[in-house]
Write a structure and sequence with these properties.
The chain has one domain: SH3 type barrels, CATH 2.30.30. About 10% of the residues lie in helices and about 30% in strands. Strands 1, 2, 3, 4, 5, 6, 7 and 8 form an eight-stranded antiparallel beta sheet that branches. It is globular. The termini are far apart.
Length: about 140
């Protein structure tokens, strides 16, 4: 008898419009709970995520990397010293590039712990960036 493995989980397709406004809470989440970053040669235990919204009991999050992405339009860069981001533990602040493809996580499963919060100005900037990245359209007037 053959053993069949279930197909790997895939992220949900992006909505036509991102949730408004982006919640903007940053957490450390367990890497094993994310699809993003699974192909790393040297795995990490935790990585920063940005909570975009809630769906039922799950979180909609943008995963991030600390590897420089330059001008890659698929990533939104938040520098560690950004005045628009308040970190719970400033000594753990790091440059982060948030990926536009969101994932849905169970906060209990990913062992999320608070890391920071975006200011209203930066939350709106992320919302507009997502709208453009997901739909190819510029911000609404």
């Amino acid at each position: 008898m053959l053993n069949h493995r279930p197909p790997p989980a895939s992220p949900p397709p992006p909505r036509a419009e991102p949730p408004e406004p982006v919640e903007g809470f940053i957490h450390w989440a367990r890497q094993a709970s994310l699809i993003f970053g699974r192909d790393r040669h040297a795995p990490v235990d935790f990585r920063p995520i940005m909570r975009v919204a809630r769906r039922d009991h799950d979180w909609v999050v943008l995963p991030s990397t600390t590897q420089r992405q330059g001008a890659n339009a698929n990533f939104f860069h938040i520098p560690a010293d950004s005045p628009d981001c308040v970190f719970t533990q400033p000594d753990q602040a790091c440059d982060a590039w948030y990926y536009r493809v969101y994932e849905c996580l169970d906060p209990a499963d990913c062992h999320a712990r608070p890391h920071g919060m975006l200011s209203q100005r930066l939350r709106l900037a992320v919302t507009e960036w997502l709208r453009h990245a997901w739909t190819g359209r510029e911000a609404r007037p």
